[in-house]
Amino acid sequence: MRDTETKPRRMGLKMKILLILLTLLLICGAVLAAFLCGLRQASQAAEPQITGDLLASQLRSVQELVTVSYYYTNMGRFENQVDFYGWKVPFTTKSFIVSYDGVIKAGVDLEKLQVSIGDGEVTVTLPESRIISHEIPEDSLEVFDESDNLFNHITIEDYTAFTRGQKSAMEQRAVDGGLLDRANQEARTAVDSLLRIMPGLEEYTLTVK
Prior knowledge:
Elements: H1 2-46, H2 52-60, E1 64-80, E2 83-84, E3 87-88, E4 94-109, E5 114-118, E6 121-125, E7 130-135, E8 142-147, H3 156-176, H4 179-196, E9 205-208
Parallel strand pairs: 6-9
Antiparallel strand pairs: 1-4, 2-3, 4-7, 4-8, 5-6
């Protein structure tokens, strides 16, 4: 009789232990699932959402994008004569010839770019290129055939005004030669290259214009 009574007790005990183990496994599974879900959400939250404002901000951090440098050597002549109410006073002419080197840099102001995103496409619209800087190193200036005059001396202001006028003429020559057109093309290429190395844009079609 004792063995007969003991068997149901042992079976009941085993069932209780089995239920406890199953419950613990279910709890552990639920905790693990919640943990993995939390990691996934945290990972997704850590990845910045691709927006037009975000891309524009990253590109604008470059500020001015210099894309083309135009180097040149030029020579110009300065001549001035005292003018008295429209009458050129004789024997008051002063003149000089100057040789100099210069560099003109052109590019785009990325503060003015526009970015739009839609239907899997990123479109960046750049402003027109412009001349960003124009430098004539002082040590490149060489003066030839300087002709001073007792009544009309050559002054430092003459050299300054002459250089300023030469800069304007050389900038116009560079623009006429296609400087800004080349800067536009180089700017589009440079921005396209920048976009292609930015994380998160692999699935987008990129257009820079």
